[in-house]
Amino acid sequence: MELEDSLYPLLRELNLGIDSYEVFRDADWALLIGAKPRGPGMERADLLDINGKIFAEQGKALNAVASENVKVLVVGNPCNTNALICMKNAPRIPKKNFHALTRLDENRAKCQLALKAGVFYDNVSNVTIWGNHSTTQVPDFVNAKIHGKPVTEVIKDKKWLEEEFTETVQKRGGALIKKWGRSSAASTAVSIADAMKSLVTPTREGDWFSSAVYTEGNPYGIDNDLIFSMPCRSKGDGDYEIVPDLQINEWLATRIKKSEEELISERSCVAHLIGQDNGYCDLTEDTRLPGEQ
Ligand code: LMR
């Protein structure tokens, strides 16, 4: 009712349903938002399994009925691994078309940098989120720019960048839940729209956006079979390429590795959902979604 009453200029028709084989029929875009939140006493492995089953089913349904070039953006957590599961269950759809949402983290990073530098957020560019949408994510201030200058030349407080900035972005989802009693909603919705716009609008010359995408053949040596957030640019045709040649200094490399290792562990936990044998699950206690403290 509220969607109808909002008179959105692009909204033509609403169809509600719970059968993914019906609602995904001929879809060009699928935004997979629903997932079960982790409850008290629930192991992360259980969460991966429960949500993984949802995304395996949705992958199968997309494979069966969606448009052959459907773009899939996974928001439900743990979104990187859910996107991997969905992709593996949809072999008809190009692997490149699967994304997990890290644009929310990019927007959060831009906001923090803008506040610290005392500039408006649209002067902040070239912000990459590397890795997992979890507290191991790496918001990259090394390659980011403010007014076209390296962030490190504008914000000279290296300790703030390495510690406070990084941690604030990594834990922003959790901070919101703590304050608000529920997950971020409005900023997530905005970032989903931003993520879609980034794929249907040419990326500004020299800039890029973050999206967690399939790693096969990636230029950064990240393990080949993951959904990992990286810098991307688009010609505006719905497709994208990973931007190569960002400077990866030792500080970034160590942290990117940690996020990669976390995603490799998550992949092992869901081996049974992605057609792989011999999976095992030994996720450590400090593996967290942004919303888990
Ligand atoms: C966020 O980053 O706000 C969410 O992913 C948090 C959550 O766990 O729902």
UniProtKB/TrEMBL annotation:
EC numbers, comma separated: 1.1.1.37
Instruction: Provide the primary localization.
Output: plastid
- Which top EC class applies here? oxidoreductase
Family stated for the protein in its record: Belongs to the LDH/MDH superfamily. MDH type 2 family.
Instruction: List, alphabetically, the PROSITE patterns matched.
Output: MDH
Arranged from A to Z, the UniProt key words for this protein are: Chloroplast, Disulfide bond, NAD, NADP, Oxidoreductase, Plastid, Transit peptide, Tricarboxylic acid cycle
Q: Where in the cell is it found?
A: Plastid, Chloroplast
Which GO BP terms, alphabetically?
A: malate metabolic process; tricarboxylic acid cycle
Annotated SUPFAM superfamilies: LDH C-terminal domain-like (SSF56327), NAD(P)-binding Rossmann-fold domains (SSF51735)
| Domain Lactate/malate dehydrogenase N-terminal span(s) in chain numbering | 1-99
| NCBIfam families assigned | MalateDH-SF1 (TIGR01759), PRK05442.1 (NF003916)
Q: Where is the signal peptide?
A: none
Q: Which residues bind substrate?
A: 38, 44, 77, 108
Q: Catalytic residues?
A: 133
Residue span(s) of domain Lactate/malate dehydrogenase C-terminal: 102-272
Q: Which residues bind NAD(+)?
A: 51, 75-77
Highest taxon listed in the record's lineage:
Eukaryota
Q: What protein name does the entry list?
A: Malate dehydrogenase
